[in-house]
Amino acid sequence: MDNKTIKIGLIGFGTIGAGVVKIISQSRETLEKRLGASLELTKIADLDITTDRGVAVAPGILTDKADEIFDDPEIDIVVELVGGYEPARTFILKALAAGKHVVTANKALLAKHGDEIFSAVEDKHLNIGFEASVGGAIPIIRSLKEAMVANDIGVIEGIVNGTANYILSKMSDEDCGFEMALKEAQEKGFAEADPTFDIEGMDSAHKIILLARLAFGARIAMEEICIEGISSVTPEDIQCAREFGYRIKLLAVAKFDGQALDVRVHPAMIPASHSMANINGVLNAVRVCDNYMEENILVGHGAGALPTGSAVVGDIVEISRNIISGAKDRLPAQSYQGKHVRKIPLKNIESVESEYFLRFGVLDQPGVLSKISGILGDHSIGIESVIQRGRGPQGKGVPLIIMTHLAVEKNVRDALSEIDHLEVVCQKANFIRVEN
Fold it and tell me: pTM for the complete prediction?
């Protein structure tokens, strides 16, 4: 048994793929001591097999034909790191059809095609590891599937996109605008040339959908949840949040009350004294609240070749242990047995209750606050505090900031729609939810 070799086929030799190769090569002795077997990279498939990735691979390992991996009967585990929906979906299904276990970091694919892929895993009595798909090096998936298996989870909240978190941290700590913070993130390699998926919340949505599946056994589609990004957050919002004792983060939220799920992604104000508010730069964090441990926060690097590669290798080792021991179906791929993963009613965003930060641009004249507060009161929205600043930019009036008590979102939206039509309002209202 000690001499067994687990053979691996890797598809996708980009940044993370190179990180996986580097970790397996540099940690070979440690891995053998802990696993009791050797890990061998038998084939690496990529369309580009000429560019130097900065890691050495043996001659004959590289190929531009992924089918060489599926057709090799000696390969035990296929690692998919190409990303996106296709051809990644086809690659994973081909690997499973060939009787091979799978490791992937592809959150978008699992969020969209999870039912099909997980069903194939169960039908074939194989393993799929996807720790790297959420939070990079943070072991949140393994924690939900194993360490917290008996816990009745009520809330999962995550700061799960390093690009957005870097931008908001930069805006908060250096009082710069969104565009400047984004430009620096791109220059440092923390943001893509087209950062839309990150800054508009889609990446975070994929991740919270996966976490909700594991925590609640819930089947959720992207189009069913509220997704808002950070591009509308202004330095003034950041400054006012600070004055009220908050920091703004892009938050992915999943809450279950036993009847319905509240799943959403949006900028949120978090009390500055809370640990989650102080997750800065490119760090990620996931907060889990349940009936036994109350609150757990897992923090770590959510991206990068080595942090993400470390999670991929962790999955490879876990699956290798199952292969060596002959264990099958030891752990449900989705945390819940497949027959118990179901559609759970989702709360409409308009039914959500929250406190709200409201920002208006208004004319500098008497009676403005009374008009706005009157409309808020008509919609059952109480005011906790108000800040009225000096004159704003030309044509945008005076900034008026209001923090509300707990209110129903529909009431807030209806009130803001009415307020936006007042003659004293120069700028459409902006609101940010407050997570206390």
Answer: 0.93
